[in-house]
Design a protein that fits this description.
Elements lengths: L9 H13 L2 H8 L3 H15 L4 E4 L2 E4 L1 H25 L6 E5 L2 H18 L4 E5 L14 E6 L7 E13 L2 H4 L16 E4 L11 H7 L11 E3 L2 H9 L4 E5 H10 L10 E11 L7 H18 L1
Parallel strand pairs: 3-4, 3-5, 7-8, 7-9
Antiparallel strand pairs: 1-2, 5-10, 6-9, 6-10
Helix pairs in contact: 1-2, 1-3, 1-4, 2-3, 5-9
Length: 305
Amino acid sequence: MQPTPRLPSLNALRAFEAVSRRLSFARAAEELYVTKAAVAQQVRLLEEEIGAPLVERSGRGLKLTEAGAAGAAGLTDGFALLARAARSMRETKGRRFLVINSSASFAATWLVGRVGKFKARHPDIDVLVDADPSQDKLERGGADAMIRWGDGQFPGLATTRLFKEEVFPVCAPALVEADPPLKTPADLSHCTLLHLEWNPSFPTWPSWSDWLKAAGAPQLESTSGVFFNQMSMAITAAAQGQGVALASLAIAADDLASGRLVAPFATTLRTPFGYYFLCRPDAAETPRIRALRDFLVEEAALSSG
């Protein structure tokens, strides 16, 4: 029996597989929730082990080399097979999870707090929350449904909007009454601004500069402060009194409801984006998917109210 050939690092293979689909180090990093530099390093390590370049620059983007193209489809199929195998192991002894996939930020700040309520309402459905943000979870069989941020354009999927995306400042209640107090947008000059620094697929995410202009205080310095690559971290820092963050309702809803955060100003920035519930069209009206979708739409309406 021939010995199994030694595989390259699975982390390197996964990084290249994401790059091969997205043709962008930045978008692959966004999908895998690591830095762009980390993805590039893993691809370089794989190229060294393979002994050939796998991607190359093409204008402003990337394209696969002959060697890269030779393995890309097989890797995508391979990771799909691994996902199905992992799911089969979870579903042993007749236990079949309803798997919902979302970003780690959305899962931690909104979704996880509602899973128990869903289970109480549907005791016959076991839910598994998966925060691995791979974009093709549905196609690979790794999830039954997904929650994704975007502009609503998700070709080939059944789509239901949960939240419109509105952006506004939030902070700890004590910061509003601090010395000096936070009463008007101009008072932000005394505060640390908490920024979201990430690699969105859409380049029009509002910044502090955008909000200050809308609030009538465009002269304030808006580029310094503390930066985070996940909104949930910025929200946590704001709740701890470290500064003022620009938040979206979906991520900040529970902290606002509990009083850990307050929204000191009325000005909000509406965006063309939102959070959407996605599933395969052929599964959209199955009882379990319909129950989950209807529940999340109801809960999102309560949060928005």
